[in-house]
């Protein structure tokens, strides 16, 4: 076995042709370093200079930076447009102030109360986010931010209303070293931790899967991701972090009241992210400098005009720099240094060259079907898209699904992958009835699919797009595949998928689903838009998937020559019913389907 693996690892060796060289697709690492530098500057700079006025002011600024960094993550990486983060900060602050300031509980309990209260608020935001998105979610969270200070006043027996709550912690504010207090160190460490959290999640499996859920719920579900769970998780992570910021806010200001958490704060935090550059790690920090530090701190005489300044700056940035300040620089940088596409674009050859050397995985001739569809019915109003369809697919079989436009092919793929529910009938996958299972659960059982329009994520590198498949795998890669994956990472880790031609995008999506190691793959018109050379490579891959990797494939394709060449069996649909099913040679003699092949080489 070991020697087989060695020879296979060599298969991914020098003769496999991959583009060389590094591009500069991502600048997260640089932005992270610059961000930390700026946070340290505002965090400990004033203490080192011994200026207590600046010290106090910038401590607050750093707390806002941490909240804005978390909001940026929520906004872009998780796709949740919350306008109510000021209220979550307030819940954290009040959690600590009520627990420790009013009831005299130990600080650890106070911090736990802060995090708990903020997470409770986050949960309330996540609930509408499970049902609504975009404008509606923004409206729900904005309403919460408007109502929050009113509630604080209303429940004054708990919150002390407009009288506010005081909590001074002298042990935290007394200088420890070089004029820096424990609070100074905390307000420096917390935004750095928030930034590292953003960077860490973004570059991990969780972040990639959140990003996909944010950009395409369908693609996410096809990779086994539950978009609702991802949204709720993002809200919980961000709320917990914002709760810690709220706890830190209390000793920083020493006194809190509803006045500190007006809707204006939530707006400012939102503006900060937009002006700095949505999704850029450094964005919220630059945003705070432009929107908050300059008008509020450095030009104090402008304070009474601050809402006007926020509004004006946001408008100006949205018009002149729609990607925000850091975002605009990033877009230019990317354009200048980007690579990929064209001749260097994504090709299947390295993959097929490697698979060629893998000994075929034997599938017993009598293996039970991996998929069995029984009497599938699907209606759209008066239209019957599927009218009692039966289908059996065995492991290692390429099953062609053909039929005229509107005959029900895509509808069948959609019900099999759990994207739409059958109105009648049932089906089992890997021997289990999955008729009522969600798309993401079915995907996790090993069913993969591609889409008519490839779902490629242009904010992720070409390699990261492939890695989404690896992220979805239940088992580790075989050594030879791992060796190839490493080479792909080297070759495409910094390539811009936005430069890929349509056919290359399609192939990229195909390789992504193959790396997820499904037992059954549904390909929806995979050859559309491929060049003749790409088509040849693709047919070779299809053969290898079934004969070498033992995957079952359902191939919906208008290119009948391709289906004829590759398929072990073909099912023909006509207005939602199966009119013929069998090996291609048998079908070509079937009078019911001969008209499909008329004029072709197979008649
Ligand atoms: N979401 C929908 N709402 C209403 N009708 C639909 C919907 N999806 C499909 N249909 C109808 O169901 C029938 C089958 O469509 P389907 O897309 O499954 O066919 P197809 O064989 O995949 O066609 P094509 O080759 O054009 O992709 C068609 O009459 C179509 O108009």
TrEMBL record:
InterPro entries reported for this sequence: AAA+_ATPase, ABC_AA/LPS_Transport, ABC_transp_permease, ABC_transporter-like_ATP-bd, ABC_transporter-like_CS, LivM-like, P-loop_NTPase
Regions that span the bilayer: 32-50, 56-75, 87-105, 111-130, 137-155, 175-201, 229-250, 256-274, 281-302, 308-329
GO cellular component, as recorded: plasma membrane
Family affiliation: Belongs to the ABC transporter superfamily.
PROSITE patterns: ABC_TRANSPORTER_1 (PS00211), ABC_TRANSPORTER_2 (PS50893)
Any Pfam family matching the protein: ABC_tran
UniProt-recorded Gene Ontology molecular function terms: ATP binding; ATP hydrolysis activity; branched-chain amino acid transmembrane transporter activity
Keyword Transport among record annotations: yes
Topology of this chain in the membrane: Multi-pass membrane protein
Keyword annotations of the record: ATP-binding, Cell membrane, Membrane, Nucleotide-binding, Transmembrane, Transmembrane helix, Transport
Compartment(s): Cell membrane
Species per Swiss-Prot/TrEMBL record: Stappia taiwanensis
Domain annotation ABC transporter: ranges: 371-600
Lineage of producing organism: Bacteria, Pseudomonadati, Pseudomonadota, Alphaproteobacteria, Hyphomicrobiales
Protein name in UniProt: Branched-chain amino acid ABC transporter ATP-binding protein/permease
SMART domains: AAA
């Amino acid at each position: 076995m070991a020697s087989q693996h060695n020879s296979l690892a060599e298969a991914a060796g020098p003769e496999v042709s991959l583009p060389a060289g590094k591009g500069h697709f991502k600048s997260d690492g640089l932005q992270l370093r610059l961000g930390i530098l700026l946070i340290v500057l505002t965090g400990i700079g004033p203490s080192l200079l011994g200026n207590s006025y600046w010290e106090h002011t910038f401590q607050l600024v750093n707390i806002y930076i941490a909240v804005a960094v978390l909001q940026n993550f929520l906004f872009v990486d998780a796709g949740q447009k919350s306008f109510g983060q000021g209220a979550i900060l307030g819940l954290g602050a009040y959690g600590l102030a009520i627990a420790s300031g009013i009831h005299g509980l130990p600080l650890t309990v106070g911090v736990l109360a802060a995090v708990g209260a903020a997470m409770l608020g986050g949960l309330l935001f996540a609930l509408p986010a499970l049902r609504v998105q975009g404008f509606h979610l923004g409206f729900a969270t904005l309403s919460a931010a408007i109502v929050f200070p009113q509630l604080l006043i209303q429940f004054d027996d708990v919150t002390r209303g407009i009288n506010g709550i005081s909590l001074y912690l002298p042990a935290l504010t007394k200088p420890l070293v070089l004029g820096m207090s424990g609070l100074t160190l905390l307000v420096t460490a917390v935004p750095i931790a928030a930034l590292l959290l953003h960077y860490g999640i973004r570059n991990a499996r969780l972040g990639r899967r959140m990003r996909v859920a944010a950009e395409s719920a369908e693609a996410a579900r096809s990779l086994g991701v539950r978009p609702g769970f991802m949204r709720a998780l993002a809200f919980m992570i961000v709320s917990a972090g914002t709760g810690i910021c709220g706890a830190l806010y209390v000793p920083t200001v020493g006194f809190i009241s509803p006045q500190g958490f007006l809707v204006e704060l939530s707006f400012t935090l939102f503006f900060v992210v937009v002006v700095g550059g949505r999704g850029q790690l450094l964005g919220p920090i630059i945003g705070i400098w432009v929107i908050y530090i300059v008008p509020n701190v450095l030009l104090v005489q402008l304070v009474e005009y601050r809402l006007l300044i926020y509004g004006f700056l946001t408008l100006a940035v949205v018009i002149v720099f729609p990607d925000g300040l850091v975002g605009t620089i990033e877009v230019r940088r990317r354009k200048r240094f980007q690579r990929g596409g064209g001749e260097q674009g994504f090709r299947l050859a390295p993959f097929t060259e490697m698979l060629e050397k893998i000994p075929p995985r034997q599938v017993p001739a009598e293996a039970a079907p991996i998929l069995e569809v029984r009497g599938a019915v699907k209606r759209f109003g008066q239209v019957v898209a599927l009218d009692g369809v039966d289908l059996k697919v065995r492991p290692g079989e390429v099953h062609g699904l053909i039929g005229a436009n509107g005959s029900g092919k895509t509808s069948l793929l959609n019900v099999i992958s759990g994207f739409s529910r059958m109105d009648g009938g049932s089906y089992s996958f890997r021997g289990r009835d999955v008729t009522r299972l969600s798309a993401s659960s079915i995907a996790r059982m090993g069913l993969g699919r591609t889409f008519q329009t490839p779902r490629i994520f242009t904010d992720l590198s070409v390699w990261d797009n492939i890695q989404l498949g690896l992220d979805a795998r239940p088992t580790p890669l075989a050594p030879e595949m791992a060796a190839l994956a490493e080479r792909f990472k080297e070759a495409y880790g910094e390539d811009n998928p936005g430069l890929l031609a349509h056919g290359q995008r399609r192939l990229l999506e195909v390789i992504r689903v193959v790396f997820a190691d499904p037992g059954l793959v549904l390909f929806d018109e995979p050859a559309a838009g491929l060049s003749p050379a790409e088509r040849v490579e693709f047919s070779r891959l299809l053969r290898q998937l079934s004969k070498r990797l033992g995957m079952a494939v359902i191939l919906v394709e208008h290119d009948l020559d391709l289906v004829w060449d590759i398929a072990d069996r073909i099912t023909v649909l006509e207005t939602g019913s199966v009119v013929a099913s069998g090996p291609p040679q048998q079908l070509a003699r079937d009078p019911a389907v001969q008209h499909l092949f008329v004029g072709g080489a197979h008649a």
